[in-house]
Structures
1.
Amino acid sequence: MIHMPGLPFLASKDGATIDFSLLLIHLLMLAMLLAWGAVFVIILARFRRSRHPKAEYAGIKTRLAGWAEAGVVVAEAAMLVGISIPFWATRVNAVPGADQQPVEVRVVAQQYVWNVHYPGPDGKFGRTNALLVDDKAGNPVGLDRNDPAAKDDVIAVNQLHLPVNRPVIVHLTSKDVIHSFALPELRVKRDAIPGMTVDVPFTPTVTTAQFRNELKAEATRSYSEKPGGLADQLAAIDKRDYEIACAQMCGLAHYRMRGTLVVQTQDEFQKWLKEQSLRSSVVEETW
Amino acid sequence: MTSHSPSLPSKAERNPAAFSFRAALVSTDHKVIGILYGVTALTFLLTGFLIMMLMRWQLAYPGRALPGASALFGSNSARMPGGVMVPEFYYQLGAMHGTIMVFLAIVPLLVGAFGTYLVPLQLGAPNTAFPRLTRLGYWSYLAGGVVWLSSFALPGGAAQSGWTSYPPLSIIAGHGQTFWLIGMILIIVSSIAGAINMIVTIIQLRVIGLTYMRLPFFVWSQLVTAFLLLLAFPPLGAAGILQLMDRVVDTSFFLPSGLVVSGAALTANVGGQTIPRGGGSALLWQHLFWFLAHPEVYVLVLPAMGMVAEILANNARKPLWGYKSMVYGTIFLGVMSMLVWAHHMFLTGMGTVITAFFQATTMIVSIPSIIVLTALLASLWGGAIRFNTPMLFALAFLPMFGIGGLTGLPLGLAVTDIHLHDTYYVIDHFHYIVVCGTLSAIFGGIYYWFPKVTGRAMNERLGRIHFWSSLVLLNCIFMPMFIQGMAGVSRRLYDGGLSYAHAQPVLKLNVFITHAAFALALAQIPFIVNLLWSLRRGPRVEANPWQATTLEWAAASPPLAQGNFETPPVAHRGPCEYSVPGKDKDYTPQWEQ
Amino acid sequence: MAARWMTQVAIGLALLVCAMSCHSGETLQTKPDEPAAPFVPGSSAITGTIKYDGAVPEFLKVPIDTSAVPDCAAHRTTPLYREDLVLGEGQALANVIVHITSGLPKRAYPVPTEPVELTQAGCQYAPHVFCIRVGQPLKVLNPEPMMHNVNANGKANSPFNMSMVSSVKEKSVEFDRPEFVVPFKCDVHPWMNAYCAVMDHPFFAVTGKDGKFTIANLDAGTYDIEAWHEALGVQKAKLQVAKDETKTIDFTFTKPSK
């Protein structure tokens, strides 16, 4: 199967549909451009004045243009009805039900970091209140520690950890301005808008470790002749993470509003969550 | 402003006492105001281009001092300390590049310069229907531009929330944003005045015999454009005033509750009491903005199509193919363009039904564009094509606009938009349409109608140098951006993507693009030289040098200062009767018996 | 006719610009009716020590997790702690601003020309709490090759938010109006914060780790004095100082009740 060239590494379940759609639509565009371009070149060659000094008054009689237009309409309608609308209905706008045991996490964007809020073992998000927000006190989301549901909640900044092959629902919002939560490798992107929470479902399918191994294999393949540069490259890949990019301009440090996503096995994920939970229980008390 | 004075000699010789700088300030003649629009908008076009070059340097060499910047800005300036651009200044330049190019350069060139100058001539009319409205339009436009440019001098600088000015960012921004809104309101006044004038002129001032189906296609494109401006700008005017109130008197139309900005809850001071702000909607602005700004995209395209149609028919020496289908297609395009705005907002959490609606309308709106483009192409079949400079630019419009239009498809389809939204692919898509497409048409239009405006021809050789170098360099600039967009590089990054690992493989392209952009600046020198030289020294031309058929060529070159025509012409036939069988010459003007 | 029309446009524009510029502050400051008498340093002083009474909360003993923004780690060898409560020997309390709030005669107090320095070394503002005079330059330093933004959210003074990219080593700013206090914050490193009091007279002091302060050069008189701490609140006192006298007043802060 051919892939759309130029796309980043793919690491999510539904990303394949997006990639396939990108390929299809670009093939359609290429076909139109080539067909249309061929006619254009033929016209320029054949009807230049030196070769065809007397223009014809009557226009070309052809049904070809009409057929081509009809073909485009059919192709566009097929993409729309066949892929785009169903994809939106079942993958973008619908969240996985409780039977699929999704991982739920709140992501609260702010200038210029991504705050990540896990519900902890009880599976319930603690109450939050804008007036309790205190960045220096490690409470960037305004979690109300008096709420029993908040006791075991975990807050991390710029670090999103997720288990592999389990559906994820990100409850996305923002504290200040509009940001956009983009995971290029997972083909996920959605605006983080203050005043509203949007549910973003996706399923990571490749752990960060596997991702790095794949990148290394690719680097080894393409750089086998230059062993000196390869070692550096491999070392760099060891630090390479999936990235959370801000895609919507959000202020002067928008360009560096970068978080990392770590996709782990279920066990590693649980272990990490536990460590964070211990850490946050220490920070519980405030003035 | 003063640079239009070189046109004085030729004008003054033909129409003594008809043209002077002082007279131009108070003139209500559509030709004078059209020229004022043209000169001003070209100046703004150059300004926007220079702004882009500053940004491109930073994108190619993030954090490296721009040679000469210390001398220009002062080594201790707040904008470029030590010659290195700071992020605030980059984002000011970004917002103002977009704003200036759309609202002060391209639309004023298409509608203000070409529309105001040519439409009354093509109608056989002595002036516009409301000459003083024409004047109000120009001066209001100029005032808006001055307010915008002057905002760079504010402490804290110009607006820096993008040309889209999304709240809440734009509401918590500095005073530059207030200037942006005031400038925008002045531009809206200008556009609405111009649109009303254009509609009434076209409906009321057509000369005897000039029925709707005998109108040049350019006039049709201006008529549809004027309706778009008239219907789309008032909502933005309302939105602009609401945002101004949010900024100046602390209302919360676009501010939802619970905002915490930089660690502090957003509050307002009401009667000495501090109360939290909120209760508004951030998305409301986006709907109101795009309700204007999507039709605005067609404002940026339709008149260009109109100009291209005129130039193509003239130089292919053939009637337009499917003139009626083009006219109906354009009207349909105008109507549909009012129904697609939310395709800019697929990722704001929209549901299935609403995305389905806007995807469908977006796919539908692509159909009339394809029809018009195909008709233009088919018009060339069987022609005897002359490849002069205006024709080269008009021909280049076709594939360039084609690429721009086609790349709109993956953005208009929600599923593929997920990956491409807010990446360089988007930037590239609309620059292919507006720069490679529309700007080519504008250059074509300048070369084509310059003889009519000044009575002199432009130099062909310089024109060809300008055309070929620009065409190659534009594609060198914009082709690589598709690769960056496909790799997922976000737009509006001050360091061009340096902070992101996923952008590294395509980062080197930034250097190539920047070099091409600087070369493109050099490629405009032949044009500027040609324009200024031809004003004084270009060879004199007669009334109808291109052997064209529409009514503006019935007037002298330049047309009479008062009333345009010696005697009002009468339209006997359609607008592009070229190579009519049985005639001894290959063009039959509208005004000939 | 045309000239009148253009005049109207010009007047309209001017009004718009005026309306906007008037908004920029609370109101435009009115000019003083008569020039104030020159300042002659007095011979009285107020001194004292500030202490904290209570246990140090647990959460202050946990280092700040800076892993969210990795660029800082390279420039720090020691862990970073919150500075809400900085104590010295014997529970002495640092970072308290002691200043006179009323009782001062109207004088033209000269403004020092040497700048106050605020550094961002190691992703931490130093000093954490400081005072500056209206019109005195504040020099913000960025010694490491790192990007910060300095977001000073004043109310009486125009708020500013300036970036300092790695090549910008220092920037200078001034405040136009007295304000107590202007919070400083870096949004790129969300834990970085500082407080700046903008004073229109020289009678203030910030305690160091010894908790001691001295306000000198006062004339004899009755003064309202205030001690401010960012987390523990404000304490006030009224005291009379005789000529050549150095009066001692101590404050003790406790943990605020919830």
2.
Amino acid sequence: MPQLEQIDTYLSQVFWTALCFGILWIVMWKVTLPRIAMALEQRQSRLDDDLERAALIKEEADTVREGYEKALAEAHAEGQAAIRKQTAELSEDSARRHAELTESLAKKIKKAEANIAAEKTRAMESVREVAVEAASAATERLVGVSVDAERARRAVESAMGKTGSGDGD
Amino acid sequence: MATESQPHGPLEQFIIQPLVDVKLGSVDLSFTNSALTMIMAVGLVIAMLTIGMRRRALVPGRWQSIAELSYEFIANMLRENVGSEGRRFFPVIFSLFMFVLFGNMIGMLPYSFTFTSHLIVTFALALAVFAAVTILGFVRHGMHFFSFFVPPGTPLLMWPLMIPIEIISYLSRPISLAVRLFANMTAGHTLLKVFAGFIAALGVLGVVPFALVIALTGLEVLIAFLQAYIFTILTCIYIHDALHMH
């Protein structure tokens, strides 16, 4: 087995092992590994940065959203208040107008009633006149006696009083 | 060389061949095929991890992913087995893993050489780990580190028995660490070569060993990774022992 037979090469093998391993060690230690570590660190810090920034942006977005929601709620409340106010004004107005209308209608009704009453009185008056004239004319034709106006009126009035209120004829 | 008598034997692949003779006085430090693969392994690791990290992109590309995954793989291993104190040992543990892994993997290429299949190499690495860990233990705990050889709660009566057992177990660490890697690599590569030899010898029936060689190659790749992992994780566990004692 050459491994155990070539004893004269042992020193050279150990020497080259030590040299090569030494070179590898120093290069890894001083150059390669720090570079890899730096790359890994950079990536980690970049990731952390990005996460941090994302958190910041999210916070900002939340603030904006909150503001928006608040504004929305305010606008909503304002709108509601305006509607309520308008409604109240309108109903008050309509109530007022209703009252005015009712009043004016009542006035008109009263006036119309007064007119009617006056008209009725006048009509009754003229009916009485006609009745008196008719009574005196009938008396003159039937009996041939001329009745004076005062008597005839009295007679008519008493007759009308007998029949009641006398507004039936 | 010993191979000339048995050409293309299954063990021929382990022969050290000097490529450039280097002599320091009477000391032979020749640049060999083993040294060449070591330099290839080191060059490959450095190239791969350095080129991968050339443009430290936020979203890593393929090579950068490999570099970052290797980094995190070893970093996690160290954190789980040693704890946060292990950060200091990260460069050496990472280099150790990469050195052994690439040594094993380059050996999987045809006509290449597996420097981890040489006991002296694995033993040198294991001894270095052992020495470093022992020094670490003494620096950390002083003479108190000797209490490592007495598991807590051992009855006084058992001490004469436990202390030698613990010392032997402690001293056998570098041997088991070295032999495990060396034996796995040597056995795997020998087995591959033996089956590969059957392919030509059996003619048409050589399809069977050929299929086996393909399957074994897959297995060997797995073992190449696994042994690098085991070598590294055991080192981590030894560091943990030196820092925390049991």
